[in-house]
Design brief:
heterodimer, A: alpha+beta, four-stranded antiparallel sheet, 10 helices, 4 strands, B: alpha/beta, six-stranded mixed sheet, globular
Chain lengths: 302, 249
């Protein structure tokens, strides 16, 4: 790939234009290559956006849940205040716990409101008491804390959010991976389409190749004529597709709390620079695919 | 039109052409060469040498193997038996790239004059220079086109040319690199007698400048006419073998 990049640059800069001129322009393969590159680049923009958004979501969820824990106290009404006080006392003396506070009834009501409605009669329900804790940089010993709670406040259960965080993080990581797989598949499909188009162009120009061979053209010269053309087409096609994809993303509704994941689909900040990589990558894929196809076909033709 | 041979001689001198390096060894040498295709032998047991600067006609009935013989001469085909030497190198030792470079030392004229139809006559004649990466500006294209009588058609596309014009353009393209060998396959096949004689004159002139010329033709009148002007040898393909023809031609 490091060898291919300078060659790619020289092709796009227009060196050795004489090689390109000897091959007549063929409308069908030109259109097909441009369209394929544009469509694939458009899809790549969205796959990349999906992958990046999944990554952001995973980070956000993990960040929000990491560093906090909840102690849930379930006990008979006459014991619950005593157990809550005991839990707070334990937490205040536990190394690694930065803060600990019991949630008020209003806060518990706010947590349940999305599911049970705002007029929830909490007083008439056997509600558990919740204590929220935040850990310091060193963190606390969850297993040790559980043992202490079991001994001194039997109705208290430590929920360190692991069982929530892990599947969320796994799902988000898998989504990010699938996004990248989609980008790779798009690259592979582009290579396959361009290989087919290059093969068709080479077959259609068998007579031209015969003439070139007759006058002493080397395989490299003939291949370069096709490679240069397909590389340029893929580059400009991908440029158009990437631009269209970027515009479509830019016009998605802005991200907000209510919109959640879908409105967060897109690029933020420096991530927009990823888009600049798509046309050169498409050109590189076209360069390698056409070069491979050309040399293979030339060996078959003569 | 063809009284301009002095121009071509000057052209060749300016190029420092006639770079014959194979001397008396022969630019193309066959030693017990045979060529088979599809289970049948098309050419058998050919042993001959084409010396530098010689002029050979190759004749025989249609389908006798004249084109196959020429394709062996310019390396498009490889012998299936025997040893073939092209410009000092054994054919089997010549790789794809080396063969391409060797073709630049050979001028090939086909009966059907293959051109790139989307390019002008000028670009087609300059094609050997283009593929060799040489500067066409320094070439003697104008003199060459004047010599073959196509000065007025430099921007014409090949499909618009007559048969004679195409043959002369093919000859111009074949010699623009000042090759050591010129191989022509039925170059007068589509031409009337007058145009055939004109093309023959060009080939004879090139031979007088030191080029090795091989012309495949079934036109015995053309051969007789050439023999009256230049020392030629006639090879005849009969029963898959290449023989030196006698005085019956």
């Amino acid at each position: 790939m490091t060898v291919a990049l300078p060659k790619l640059a020289s092709l796009l800069k227009g060196r050795d234009a004489g090689a390109e001129a000897v091959v007549p322009a063929t409308g069908a393969t030109a259109w097909l290559t441009n369209f394929t590159a544009a469509a694939m680049a458009f899809l790549a923009v969205f796959a990349l956006a999906l992958s990046l958004a999944a990554g952001r979501l995973a980070d956000r969820w993990s960040g929000a849940l990491a560093g906090t824990a909840t102690v849930r106290i379930t006990a008979p009404a006459d014991q619950i205040d005593a157990q809550a006080a005991a839990v707070l006392a334990i937490l205040q003396t536990t190394p690694g716990v930065a803060t600990a506070r019991a949630l008020s009834l209003e806060e518990e009501r706010a947590l349940l409101a999305p599911w049970l409605g705002p007029d929830l009669p909490l007083d008439s329900l056997p509600m558990p008491r919740l204590v929220e804790l935040t850990e310091d940089r060193d963190g606390y010993d969850a297993e040790g804390l559980r043992n202490r709670l079991a001994a001194e406040a039997p109705g208290a259960v430590l929920d360190d959010h692991t069982r929530w965080r892990r599947p969320l993080a796994e799902a988000a990581a898998r989504l990010r991976f699938l996004g990248l797989v989609a980008v790779v598949l798009i690259g592979g499909a582009t290579a396959a389409m361009i290989t087919l188009a290059a093969g068709a162009a080479l077959s259609a120009n068998a007579q031209v190749i015969a003439v070139l061979r007759l006058v002493g053209a080397r395989d490299l010269f003939i291949a370069r004529a096709f490679v240069r053309r397909f590389t340029a087409r893929a580059f400009w096609g991908a440029m158009a597709g990437t631009t269209a994809g970027a515009i479509a993303l830019a016009f998605l509704p802005a991200a907000d709390e209510a919109g959640g994941f879908l409105t967060g689909l897109g690029f933020q900040g420096a991530a927009w620079l990823w888009l600049a990589a798509i046309p050169p990558l498409a050109a590189l894929v076209a360069y390698l695919a056409t070069r491979l196809a050309a040399f293979r076909r030339l060996r078959e033709l003569t | 039109m063809f009284g301009e041979t002095a121009n071509l001689a000057g052209l060749e001198r300016r190029r420092g052409a006639n770079r014959l390096t194979n001397g008396e060894r022969g630019v193309i040498a066959f030693e017990n060469v045979a060529y088979s295709y599809g289970g049948g032998e098309l050419l058998s047991d050919i042993s001959l040498t084409l010396p530098a600067g010689s002029f050979h006609f190759l004749t025989g009935p249609s389908g006798s193997g004249k084109s196959t013989f020429l394709k062996l001469c310019y390396g498009e085909l490889s012998p299936t038996a025997g040893r073939l030497t092209l410009l000092g190198t054994e054919r089997r030792a010549i790789g794809r790239d080396a063969m391409a470079l060797m073709r630049r030392r050979m001028g090939i004229v086909h009966q059907d004059c293959q051109f790139l139809d989307h390019m002008s006559l000028r670009a087609n004649v300059l094609l050997p220079l283009t593929v060799a990466g040489l500067d066409a500006q320094g070439s003697d294209l104008d003199d060459l086109l004047a010599w073959v009588g196509l000065s007025d058609l430099v921007e014409a596309r090949p499909p618009s040319l007559s048969g004679g014009e195409r043959q002369r353009a093919a000859l111009a393209r074949a010699i623009i690199m000042s090759p050591e060998v010129i191989l022509a396959d039925e170059p007068t096949g589509n031409l009337d007698w007058e145009m055939s004689l004109r093309l023959l004159t060009l080939l004879i002139e090139l031979n007088r400048m030191g080029k090795t010329v091989v012309v495949a033709t079934h036109d015995l009148n053309l051969i007789r006419n050439a023999k009256a002007q230049v020392a030629t040898r006639v090879l005849r393909i009969r029963n898959r073998r290449v023989q030196l023809a006698g005085a019956d031609l």
